[in-house]
Amino acid sequence: MNHQIEMLAKRLKLSWIREHYQEVKADTNEEFLLELFKREVENREERKINLLLSQAQLPKTGTQPFQWEHIQIPQGISREAILNGDFIHEKENLILYGGVGTGKTYLATLISLNAIHRFGSKVKFFTVASLVNHLIEATKKENFRK
């Protein structure tokens, strides 16, 4: 019977259930099923976040809080709106520019991490140089990817 359960869970792509169903204890069948499904969903969400983080190719940043003192934000936009990624939902661009060491990469990383963890958004980090190189390469091959 265990083999059948494992094979059916595999066929249904219920990987957490297949590997851990024997660990779950409950008083009723309904509680048992509920706990199985909850843990399967949690596992899938965790795997999705990990996949999004690896695909984003975010740079390593420090652990210090972001210093907003020298950042100029246009009127009508708040720090919270930037960090929450409101511009993403409104399908707008956010361009960060400034001198070396002003925190552009750090801020972009914070925004990206929020987008991934809070909304499950797909993010891809590029430096200007790497983006230009990708565009040049795509132009040569006539192969533009999103």
Q: Can you walk through the features of this model?
A:
With 146 residues, the chain is mainly alpha-helical. The protein contains 7 helices and no strands. The longest helix is centred in the N-terminal third of the chain and has 28 residues, at 29-56. It is elongated, with a radius of gyration of 22 Å. It starts with a helix and ends in a 5-residue tail after the last helix. The model has no long low-confidence stretch (mean pLDDT 86).
How would you sum up this structure in a few lines?
By secondary structure, the protein is an all-alpha fold. It is built from seven helices and no strands.
Radius of gyration: 22 Å
- In DSSP terms, counting alpha (H) and pi (I) runs of 4 or more, how many helices? 7
> How many strands in all?
0
Largest sheet: none
What is the overall pLDDT average?
Answer: 86
For the record, give the distance between the C-alpha atoms at the N and C termini, rounded to a whole number: 47 Å
What is the helix/strand order? HHHHHHH
Helix content: 55-70%
What overall geometry do the principal axes of the alpha carbons give? elongated
Strand content: under 5%
Poorly predicted ranges: none
Q: What class, by secondary structure content? A: mainly alpha
Attribute tags:
0% strand; 146 residues; mainly alpha
Question: How is this fold's topology laid out?
Answer:
Elements: H1 2-11, H2 15-20, H3 29-56, H4 79-84, H5 86-89, H6 104-119, H7 128-141
